[in-house]
Amino acid sequence: MKILLIEDDTTLAELIKQTLLEQHYLLDEAIDGQTGWELAKSYQYDLILLDLFLPKLDGINFCQQLRQSGDRTPILLMTAYDSSTRKIAGLDAGADDYLVKPFDLEELLARIRALLRRGNDSLPPVLEWGDLTLDPASCTVTYQGETLHLTAKEYALLELFLRNPQRIFSQSALLDRVWAWDTFPSENAVRTQIKSLRQKLKKAGAAKDLIETVYGLGYRLRATEVQLSKPKQIEQEASEFRAANKSRLQKTWEQNQDKYRARLAIVIKAANKWREDNLSETLREEALRELHTLKGSLGCFGLAQISSLCEQVEQSFQAATNLTSIEVQQLPELVGKLQQQLEEVNFLSHEKPESQLPPRLLTFHRQIKTTIQHTPRILMISGDIPLTNSLTEEARIWGMQVSSASNHTQVQQLLGKKQPDLVLLDLSLTDSADWGLALLQELGTARPPVPTIVLTAEDSFTTRLQVARLGAKSCLHKPITPTQVIENIHNYLQQYSLNVAKIIIVDDDRPILTLLHQVLEPWGFQLTLVNDPQQFWSILTEVNPDLVILDLEMPGLSGIDLCQVVRNDPQWENLPILFLSAYSDRANIQQIFAVGGDDYIPKPIIESELIARVLNRLKRMQTLRKFAQINH
Predict the structure, then answer these.
(1) Could you give the CA distance from residue 91 to residue 131 in angstroms, rounded to a whole number?
(2) What strands, in cross-sheet order, belong to the sheet with 75-79?
């Protein structure tokens, strides 16, 4: 867990620091309120320890500014003033707890633990993953009852993975969460600590790849063998997940159904006025806007039938002059049916299984799952058994699936089964140098090509030129350590990995924002949700996002308006912009791309399709940035 300490008393700060570090907390420090504010806005913390009286920015104003910005990080105020007035002012400003100096360090730790539990009620007191347990209260880690002796960084990494068992952490995300802001570590530091942690887990008897490398994304916990060997348990967990998901939808619906009733009330009023032949153009347009919002929002909740009914009513209002008098008289009845179905919504009484998705989206959904769970497959071709064994062992520590071959027949058999993600080819130890070069050419011309890294004992320009022309991704000269070889492989596989992306989502419909947050947040994205499009520009310049998602139609300022403003500024001309809309007609789609939109996502939103489009756009943006860096 990462804590920000803002205290100008350096002696007290040092005492608190040592106490927290002994408990394996991660700590950033600031000696004035302004520096603390900048850190709080730049990094993600689980708790803030804040002195009340600070230079530049005092604790009360710090709390107020943080809460006004929407940041709900728990705050523990510390001060020497033991008066109810001070306490009330601090708590009213947004602090979660108050501690009077001088205080007992054990009490400080107890209050910290209480606030961290309060900040996330879902966190269990003891974290478990198969036979692996971590007890935050005693800072102990055990595997099958045996204690593991971990360094502070190894402990912090393991705790982070255990608290977020489904999340994939990129190297940059781990640097932000586990390393202090002023230490300036490189991504090699992450790899070194991950490797060391894997070795200690393996030595204790855990699976070699308990912390797996997800190709192109980062690291996460792998499901244990016990979990994978129990289909009934897996099905039970899946059932529990589906139940929790429906419960979450039901809760979100209950919190927002009054807003939908208010929207529908305007439609009901317009329908009645129309039947009385007293419908104004202003009311008709207002009803159309509300129907458009209802259609898209309800579809995102999975209420396809009600969404379709909204579309029917919307079409009636759009074709106002073409409706017969009978159709106008029947309109309130159709709206009444819509109202009845809204009142009867209950997510806990039904579910839509994956198999009912359209075939195209079902395939897309499974492809996403496959991508997430993919482990790099490495084929090592060498006749040196000791070298092969040492490289194989090292690769497995790094989370790679390894197979090896020492002759032409074995190579062909392995290539025929499943194409590897990368081949490590030892030219000096194949059957012959000519065969090795021929194989390298064959791998480079395959469709798709198989990336190949070459090992050679002949360190000459001629050899390097030869293997480069044949398509090798890298040429390593022996002697070289197994670690150096695997680091080269890892670096190649990670070269297109996605950093933690910052995404701004703008939609005037709060339930849609909530649903989008629930879909995208587990992927580790830093999400900023904007309900008022008037605030978009100031938030854009503050967040500096990697991608923006805009609703097409919003009151006051549309997504088209916001996109045009962005594209008119040279700083943001290449910022990826995705549009959400319930409209699927050609005119609206053409308008989206005409103003500079990069992609269009129709409502109701399909979760797997949304994730795929976001990941693809971020991947493309990262590639363009790399090309720009190369050209620069």
Answers:
(1) 42
(2) 26-30, 2-6, 47-51, 75-79, 97-100
Rounded CA-CA distance 394/409 in Å is 25
What would the pLDDT profile of 373-388 be if each residue is shown by its tens digit? Answer: 456 788 988 877 777 8
**How remote is the C-alpha of 548 from its chain's centroid?**
15
Residue with tokens 């399709």: 609
Q: Which of 50-54, 459-463, 476-480 has the highest mean pLDDT?
A: 50-54
In the numeric block, which tokens belong to residue 339?
Answer: 């109202």
Most confident of 22-36, 130-144, 347-361, 546-560: 546-560
Q: What is the DSSP letter of 101?
A: S
Q: Which amino acid is at 400?
A: M
Residue type at 218?
Answer: G
Show Cβ contacts of residue 322 under 8 Å, excluding neighbours closer than 6 positions: none
**For residue 175, what pLDDT is reported?**
79
433-445 vs 461-469: helix axis angle to the nearest 10?
Answer: 40
Q: What does the H/E/C string look like for 477-511?
A: ECCCCHHHHHHHHHHHHCCCCCCCCEEEEECCCHH
Distance CA 536, CA 471 (A): 47
Helix axes 510-520, 607-631, angle to 10 degrees: 70
- What is the signed CA dihedral for 25, 29, 34, 35, rounded to 10 degrees? -110
Question: What percent of the chain clears pLDDT 90, i.e. is strictly above it?
Answer: 7
Mean pLDDT, to the nearest integer, of 37-41?
87
Task: Identify each DSSP E strand in 165-242 by its residue range.
Answer: 211-214, 218-221
Element counts in the chain: helices (H) and strands (E) = 24, 21
Q: pLDDT per residue over 527-556, tens digit each?
A: 999 989 999 999 998 888 999 999 998 888
Q: Which helix (H) or strand (E) holds 135?
A: strand 132-135
- In this structure, is the dihedral angle defined by the CA atoms of residues 317, 319, 324 and 326, taken in order, positive or negative? negative
Strand 502-506 vs strand 474-477: parallel, antiparallel, or unpaired? unpaired
Peptide bond into 479 cis (omega under 30): yes
Q: At what angle do helices 187-203 and 385-397 cross, to 10 degrees?
A: 100
Phi and psi of 26, rounded to 5°?
-95, 145
Q: Considering only residues 533 and 413, tell me which one the structure prediction assigns the higher pLDDT.
A: 533
Of 385-399, 432-446, 558-572, 607-621, the range with the highest mean pLDDT is 558-572
On whether the CB atoms of residues 421 and 410 are closer than 8 A, the answer is no
Coil vs helix vs strand at 410: helix
Query: How far apart are the C-alpha atoms of 310 and 630, rounded to whole Å?
Result: 51
End-to-end CA distance of the chain: 39
Q: Tell me the whole-structure pTM to 2 decimals.
A: 0.39
Instruction: Report how far residue 98's alpha carbon sits from residue 91's, in angstroms, rounded to the nearest whole number.
Output: 8
Average confidence score pLDDT of the chain = 78
Neighbour-count burial for 388-417, b at 16+ CB within 10 Å, e otherwise: bebbbebbbbbbbebbbbbeeeebeebbee
Phi, psi of 339 (to 5 degrees): -65, -40
Give the sign of the dihedral formed by CA 459, CA 460, CA 464, CA 470.
negative
Residues 48-78: tens digit of each pLDDT: 999 888 888 888 889 988 888 878 888 998 8
**DSSP bridge pairs for 142:** 133, 147
* Nearest CA-CA partner of 75 in 84, 86, 88, 64: 64
